[in-house]
Amino acid sequence: MPPLALYWGRMSLTEQMTQLARQAKEACRTLARLTPAEKNTALGAMAAALERQAGALKSANARDLETGAEMGLSAAMLDRLKLDETRIAGMARGLREVAALPDPVGRVLEERTRPNGLRLRKVSTPIGVIVIIYESRPNVTADAAGLCFKSGNATILRGGKEALHSNRLIAQLMVEAAGEALPAFPPHAIQVVPTADRQAIPELLALTAYIDLCMPRGGEGLIRAVAQCSKVPVIKHYKGVCHVFVDRNADPEMAERIVLNAKCQRPGVCNAMETLLVDRPIAPQFLPRIARLLAPHHVELRADSAAAAILRADAAAPPCRVKDATDADFFTEHNDYILNVRVVDDVQQAAQHIAHYGSAHSDAIVTANPDTARTFLQDVDSAAVYWNASTRFTDGGQFGMGAEIGISTDKVGVRGPMGLEELTSYKWIGLGDGQVRA
Amino acid sequence: MPPLALYWGRMSLTEQMTQLARQAKEACRTLARLTPAEKNTALGAMAAALERQAGALKSANARDLETGAEMGLSAAMLDRLKLDETRIAGMARGLREVAALPDPVGRVLEERTRPNGLRLRKVSTPIGVIVIIYESRPNVTADAAGLCFKSGNATILRGGKEALHSNRLIAQLMVEAAGEALPAFPPHAIQVVPTADRQAIPELLALTAYIDLCMPRGGEGLIRAVAQCSKVPVIKHYKGVCHVFVDRNADPEMAERIVLNAKCQRPGVCNAMETLLVDRPIAPQFLPRIARLLAPHHVELRADSAAAAILRADAAAPPCRVKDATDADFFTEHNDYILNVRVVDDVQQAAQHIAHYGSAHSDAIVTANPDTARTFLQDVDSAAVYWNASTRFTDGGQFGMGAEIGISTDKVGVRGPMGLEELTSYKWIGLGDGQVRA
Question: How close does chain B come to A261, measured CA to CA in Å?
């Protein structure tokens, strides 16, 4: 076989992507037949290989870091790109944790016997071929490939072009290790798109005959571009504009605890609060308390006129910086120590605000009134809605799913955190003794 | 308000479709709040209105039949377009049957309590706004709108242009009746695309902010065109190329019964068998039996060379017409008294044939050998796989789901028959007492 670069060089991009996708589809049939023990053996071998080859991984990564620096990536981006001992150990640990989780394939989800004696079983199956599109962090390669493999899916991975050497080596080590540990392992179960050509994505996502699902992970721009061009199903969340509504019947201490946690525990993630909605009757008391609470974290408040008036009238100088919120602020995932604040008339107006400005990700109400809570939980149509708890819980680990491959705000297919079970489809198996339809 | 035609006349197609979609989205919030009793009252009123207005429906339908005849529709197409007393009564009965089914919204699908005391409930919810695209039969309007309404979804219906008068009146009667019976009924819960402009479909299916799902029903051409242009999720099956594999260990009488049923009980539907795969060791005995069995139904056999040789060597003149199958035949949903026949080496080759030529709809094995059955049920990745039963069972009614809105061969979201439960999504509800993330 000629060297890879030469080999690919002779094919058009369409041919390259079709070959990747066809190989993945072929791998699926073998993957679906592997036993849980076989898959776990392979995952263990993959983890060991990553640890053993830490030196080679760091060298490949050094090339990427060099290119990244030449490309002018920010220090934060370069940090995300970096693979050090800790992160390599983290990838290995992640693969072993996935091996320890229950196998998600072959679960009987439902069973019924029809009057004619036909027994119907709804059984979980792999989805098939999954394309993962992501940005800088090369550890996503191991995490995503491990979760997809355990759920019997073939993966085609497309990371950032700045991480290509790291991503290719991670995938190669995983495939080689699995192949040695498990002769039945199909080598095309895990593939990295071997070109940085941007056109590769629409080419790949047009191949509906081979590809079953695409999961983009990253900024809203990337996800919108993928959703716009894809002809295969996409599971995604565009952004996390999460709300906490503090109702007139809220316990003020509980409300403070939840607001602080939802905003400041980790402001850069999708389930952090972006907008605080405060019920009008309690706003004059509650808002100054919140300003004092958030001041040590240097949170900037972007307030609507009612909230701004209260905050600015506070007897003490306002301890947080207060700006006037624009309409755009309420649509924005700041991912930072910035909090939109609005005073609303009641729970209905809170729900309306969330329907208009929200991203259907995670929204919470704080109240001691069960009727108000019920209205909120019913009316707010988000993947996760909380009563007296922080929005920060929307997470596969926190939900007890084990590792998570992403979060969905879609209505078709999975909604909310996606763990192993959420990476499966199902089929109906009909067991008869000669039944025919009358 | 100006008459509808004038009103619409002033808007661009994009504006018209955006308005339809936005109205549907607004209707959703009210729909999600209706109680099961309220929905059932409205369904009963809709059924009564269709019966009461049978005369008006037949008049509107007569206009469509006239246009259809002018358009040169075939007699079969005109028959599908026709609304007579029986079909009107059928629509009313369908709506009452849907009312009698359990409400699919608000079911607790899963419940777990986390170590921190946070209680998580996965609860079924409506999907939101569903666009249904279909061909001639106007009764689909009532059936689809009724199922979507009961599951709390708003519908935008786009039937064939030849059925526009019938479809509009059906929807109008349903909306008026529901509004009289139930003041909270949102009038935009059921809307018919009021133009025959083909461009309306891509315009509508680009509105990802308002539309949650599209379900096209009809021929493969229609479905491919919809899937190709849609930016919203599409649930579909392109075609039903269903197989029966008769294994060497099959009970011959059972195999005959299943083959006859799968091919001839209703050959024009998607779960009818298109291809018979016969295991090589039994082909010389089994194929002539099948030819004699299918002869009274004038089934044409399109046989691969091995099967053709056996059939043509039959001592008696072959009782069925035997043609040489082309490769294209094996990909084709004939929907007719035509059956592809192929001799295969074993269950593995049968599964390979199905993976290559099949449509992942419904496939069956007939065998008395449980190991062979297990291989088939495992390897064949179709929405429904049967052991010793006819493929004809893939149907919402036969599965005990009540009415069915369609069948999906997709891997993301619903697979197989889609009843009321399959028209729902879910959300996670977190019930806490002040939990924050550590």
Answer: 6
pLDDT in tens, B109-139: 999 999 999 999 999 999 999 999 998 789 9
Q: Please name the residue of chain A whose CA is at the shortest distance from the CA of residue B364.
A: A430
Domains of chain A, start order: 9-236 (3.40.605.10), 242-394 (3.40.309.10)
CB pairs under 8 A between A and B: 205
A-interface mutation test, from B111, B393, B395, most A Cβ less than 10 A away:
B393
Question: Nearest residue of A to residue B433 by CA position?
Answer: A388
Identify all chain A residues contacting B392, using CB atoms and an 8 Å cutoff: 436-437
Query: Which site among B30, B263, B412, B426 would you substitute to test the A interface, given the most A Cβ atoms closer than 10 Å to its Cβ?
Result: B412
Note whether ipTM > 0.90 here.
yes
Contacts of A382 in chain B (CB under 8 A): 427
Token reading at A45:
């071998």
pTM assigned to the model: 0.94
Residues B260-301: pLDDT tens digits? Answer: 999 999 999 999 999 999 999 999 999 999 999 999 999 999
